[in-house]
Amino acid sequence: MTNSEATEKQDATATSIKVMVVDDQPMVRKGIVSLLQLEGGIEVVGEAGSGAEALSLVPRLSPELILMDVRMPNMDGIECTQKILKAYPNIKVLILTTFDEDEYIFPAIEAGCCGYLLKDTPLEDLSAAIKIVHKGNVQLGPSIAPKVLARLRPYKERGETEKLRFMTEREKTILKLIGQGNSNKEIATTLNISEGTVKNHISSILTQLGLRDRTQAALWVAENGIG
Q1: Where does 151-224 sit in CATH, by number?
Q2: Residue 49 scores a pLDDT above 60
Q3: Please, are residues 102 and 141 in contact by the beta-carbon 8 Å criterion?
Q4: CA 81 to chain centre
Q5: Which residue in 69, 54, 66, 19 sits closest to 39, CA to CA?
Q6: In this structure, which long-range contacts are made by residues 181-188, counting pairs with CB atoms below 8 Å and at least 24 apart in sequence?
Q7: Is pLDDT above 90 for 80?
Q8: The whole model's pTM is what?
Q9: Where are the domains of the chain?
Q10: Top-level class of domain 3-143
Q11: 183 neighbors 215 (Cβ within 8 angstroms)
């Protein structure tokens, strides 16, 4: 390998998204890892066979995004997601599972995951989803999105969009930018304000809409057609 090739490889690694794969089925986990290692812009920094193992590895591996299975013994993916995000709120969690039942989808979203995909998702789509979620956007599988939007629809029917009437123009703008998948830093740059100010506005927005986090806010924007 030439010096220039070595440098290019180092640069690629430095800019790659650091991903950890958590799945209790060794063959499935190894398969996912092997496929992701072929994708540019993604670096698999580790893998875990349980929620408990994932929790123990996060401090050492420092993943930016975790591909998380839902059903695992001892500690499932939902509980693991809650604990990881409580301790490391900057980590993104993308659920990758075989289960598309409501009993898993909505608790996972409430736990703070930024995406929910099924394991039959093509590699190209999975890779794209990882990059989308890493940027702060929400990614739902084609069979998952209708379920989530249907759950949100009753809020719209009760006139939830009326709450926009009580928001400031700045809050409305930030809400739209959240819906477009912008991070706090990107919003701050766009509006020429500090990230701290953005966080304060987002806190106010979530309170007014009765939402838990940015993921729910982005879904609310999509459901209500705020553009």
Answers
A1: 1.10.10.10
A2: yes
A3: no
A4: 11
A5: 19
A6: 181/132, 181/135, 181/136, 181/137, 181/138, 181/218, 182/136, 183/135, 183/136, 186/136
A7: yes
A8: 0.68
A9: 3-143, 151-224
A10: alpha beta
A11: no
User: Tokens at residue 2, please?
Assistant: 């030439």
First-to-last alpha carbon distance for the chain, in angstroms, is: 49
**Are 20 and 54 spatial neighbours (Cβ–Cβ below 8 Å)?**
yes
Beta-carbon count within 10 A of 36 CB: 19
Q: What is the pLDDT of residues 195-216, one digit of tens each?
A: 888 988 898 888 888 888 888 8
pLDDT band with cut points at 50, 70 and 90 for residue 177? very high
> How far, in Å, are 13, 95, 204, 211 from residue 141 at the CA level?
28, 10, 30, 22
Q: Is the pLDDT of residue 98 over 70?
A: yes
Burial (Cβ within 10 Å: 0-12, 13-18, ≥19) of residue 5: exposed
Give yes or no for a contact between 90 and 65, defined as CB atoms under 8 angstroms apart. no
In 83-218, the DSSP E strands lie at 92-97, 115-118, 139-140
